[in-house]
Amino acid sequence: AEEAALPPSVAERVLFVEEAASPPGVAEHVLFVEEAAAPPTAAASALVVDEEAAPPPAAAAGALAADEGIAEDDSLLKVSIVGATGLRNAEWFGKSDPYCMCQLKGKPRTKVQTEVVSSQLNPVWNFEATLDGYSKGDTLEFEVYDKDTFNAHDLLGMATLSSDCFHSNGFEGDLQLLDRNGKPCKGALRIKVGRQASPSRAEEPTPAP
């Protein structure tokens, strides 16, 4: 009876309202909101953050410059032990049989040695060697010994040469020998020292201007 109370035109309007509760426009609007939950600007922002987190080109260039600075300081050292004069005679019979050893202080793997010259207090060695691993500030150490066949070799004298003396312009001259107490003793050592770039640096191509 109540349904019959509504005229046909009113029933049609109620039915229209129910069907239109979720009109296509609303559904499309909901779909648009879901698709827009992560708008392109959010992805762009994440990309910007990633790019900002990476080290800037200036920082990378600075690190490279530091590495190049270390490599620049690393070089080879060419040492010539020419000879010695006025050495002490450590033999009871005959004369000393001297030889000389050289190394970078604190770097025993750089040690080199001349040949032994028999019965000579003014030996001439003309010995040349290249020491790898030299760095500015290193000190050269020299020790002259008398070779003894059956006993310990006798120290005839020692000398040192700091890098300040040869790093920039090389060195050529005589070094006064000292005893174990650091006091002058008989004899002098003639040497030549020069610095040269290591092969790894020398072979690097020159950058284009």
TrEMBL record:
The keyword Calcium applies. Keywords: Calcium, Metal-binding. GO terms for molecular function: calcium ion binding. Residues 56-177 form the C2 domain. InterPro entries: C2_dom, C2_domain_sf. GO terms for cellular component: membrane. It holds the Pfam family C2. It comes from the Eukaryota. Signal peptide: none annotated. SMART domains: C2. The keyword Nucleotide-binding does not apply. PANTHER family: C2 DOMAIN-CONTAINING PROTEIN, MULTIPLE C2 AND TRANSMEMBRANE DOMAIN-CONTAINING PROTEIN. This is C2 domain-containing protein.
